[in-house]
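Hey L., structure's done. Input below.
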Amino acid sequence: MNLTDIIGSLGVFLILLAYVLSVRFQLSNKSLSYMLLNFIGASLACIASVMLMYIPFIILEAAWALVSLHSLGHFLRSSATKLS
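Output:
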């Protein structure tokens, strides 16, 4: 197993972990943990896809990471507003 495999496998594991915990009602899809698992997982999977130069998955994982980042930003802004 090379570095690309390790990075990609970790990324996919984090995405799947978020999904499994969500469908088992152990983690809300509106929670910070869920959003972080998705963002970090998609980012790692995207990095591995770039290392492999596999364009379809670069697009998929980059879009997934950007959507996750957007949700994370919205969550953090909302939390900051509640603290004010």
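The radius of gyration is 14 Å. The chain has a mean pLDDT of 96.

-- N.
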